[in-house]
């Protein structure tokens, strides 16, 4: 049996809001070129598959039928529907909008089905992770919420507990909202404080609906949080809550816009730290869910020097063929990047592992990140029978 299934086709590049938009298809193109040049597509543990756009019935498991019809209508006519988030600066209308977004949904759902059925252990869709889309509206570059559709499909197939872990710099508000009152889904979002970044939500005190208290976990970090503090925050919150929840499958979103070079955010988390976080999620899946892991892309707008490095590493991690930190990137890929973008690509895959301080070393009340960590622990841990002040 193959270990991992990677959903990919050049058709996924059709999710394109036009020139100048941060969600540039080139970030996917350059990632897949690097995946190929690194020889990952030849790994015996990895299979690559394509999908057709999802039918409306599948999309409507997490979106209102009226909204899906509105997306189709806006794409066909070019007329904005701003009330539903269509035709805004974030989500401009384009002719293939419905089909392109529906293909992202199909890819993430396919990955979830393959994992749940046991055909593979891990599923990856780097084009997915459109976590801002709401039931009835587009938001933040996201037309349809493929991450939520993957989670819902797992529930429909019989999963009783699904953990969703979101590492994007922006709060995973759409997925959280869709499952706000569903105790079968744990949503964990580690993001820049919403007081300083879109979408303006995700406070530590937001912990789920009345029927699902404690199943929404929000770790809102201050601007300029670096990789060492980011890993400390993850370590202090994510494993403990996920272990108490005992998921049967983990779905994770690996938006890499927490990097210091990203033009849209204010965090400072390097490639090495983001690779470490992916490994931790992978390890949790094997520890708690018999390895069942669905890994998605997400945000990330440093198209040349961050996105391809983080997501190629994610594919390698899922294929059980991890890349060594600091390896020299293929010269052929670097030439392609220069020819396509005119930019000077990185020479190496990160600069080394990040030294970080575990929460067990003690709480520092003068540290902004430690205060954010403790706020989340205070709001969430007692619901799970955990002591916010001890491990």
UniProtKB/TrEMBL annotation:
Metabolic or biological pathway: Ketone degradation; acetoin degradation
GO biological process: acetoin catabolic process; epigenetic regulation of gene expression
Zinc in keyword set: no
Residue ranges constituting the Histone deacetylase domain according to the UniProt record: 21-316
Protein's UniProt keywords contain Ubl conjugation: no
Family, per entry: Belongs to the histone deacetylase family.
Protein name: Acetoin utilization protein AcuC
Source organism of this protein record: Krasilnikoviella flava
């Amino acid at each position: 049996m193959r270990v991992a299934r990677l959903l990919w086709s050049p058709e996924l590049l059709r999710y394109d809001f036009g020139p100048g938009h941060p969600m540039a298809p080139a970030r996917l193109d350059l990632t897949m070129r690097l995946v190929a040049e690194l020889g990952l597509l030849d790994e015996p543990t990895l299979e690559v598959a394509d999908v057709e756009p999802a039918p409306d019935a599948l999309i409507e498991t997490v979106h209102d039928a009226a909204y899906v019809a509105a997306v189709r209508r806006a794409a066909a006519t070019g007329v904005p529907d701003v009330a539903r988030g269509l035709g805004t600066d974030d989500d401009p209308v384009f002719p293939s909008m419905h089909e392109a977004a529906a293909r992202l949904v199909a890819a993430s759902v396919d990955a979830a089905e393959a994992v749940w059925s046991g055909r593979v252990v891990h599923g990856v869709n780097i084009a997915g992770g459109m976590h801002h889309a709401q039931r009835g509206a587009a938001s933040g570059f996201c037309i349809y919420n493929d991450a939520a559709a993957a989670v819902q499909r797992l529930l429909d197939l019989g999963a009783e507990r699904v953990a969703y872990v979101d590492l994007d710099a922006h709060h995973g508000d759409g997925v959280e909202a869709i499952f706000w009152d569903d105790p079968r889904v744990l949503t964990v979002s580690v993001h820049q404080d919403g007081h300083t970044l879109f979408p303006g939500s995700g406070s530590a005190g937001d912990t789920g609906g009345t029927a699902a208290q404690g199943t929404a976990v929000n770790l809102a970090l201050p601007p300029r949080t670096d990789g060492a503090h980011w890993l400390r925050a993850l370590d202090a919150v994510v494993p403990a809550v996920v272990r108490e929840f005992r998921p049967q499958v983990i779905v994770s979103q690996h938006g890499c816009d927490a990097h210091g070079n990203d033009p849209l955010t204010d965090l400072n988390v390097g490639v090495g730290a983001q690779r470490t976080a992916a490994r931790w999620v992978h390890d949790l899946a094997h520890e708690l869910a018999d390895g069942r892991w669905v890994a998605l892309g997400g945000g990330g707008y440093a198209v040349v020097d961050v996105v391809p490095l983080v997501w190629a590493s994610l594919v390698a991690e899922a294929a059980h063929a991890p890349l060594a930190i600091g390896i020299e990137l293929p010269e052929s890929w670097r030439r392609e990047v220069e020819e396509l973008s005119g930019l000077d690509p990185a020479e190496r895959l990160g600069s080394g592992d990040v030294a970080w301080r575990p929460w067990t070393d003690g709480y520092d009340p003068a540290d902004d990140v430690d205060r954010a960590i403790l706020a989340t622990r205070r709001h969430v841990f007692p619901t799970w029978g955990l002591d916010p002040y001890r491990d």
